[in-house]
Amino acid sequence: MPAGALPALVPSLVVHLSLQKSFLRGITTGAIKG
């Protein structure tokens, strides 16, 4: 793995995880409400 790929990968991974967490929370709250 190139050394330059890791710094580029980390921010996108963090964004992906945070979006996934809020996305799952939205689904669960929607399922509970509806």
From TrEMBL:
The keyword Transport applies. This is Multiple sugar transport system permease protein. Keywords: Sugar transport, Transport. The lineage of its organism: Bacteria, Bacillati, Actinomycetota, Actinomycetes, Pseudonocardiales. It comes from the Bacteria.
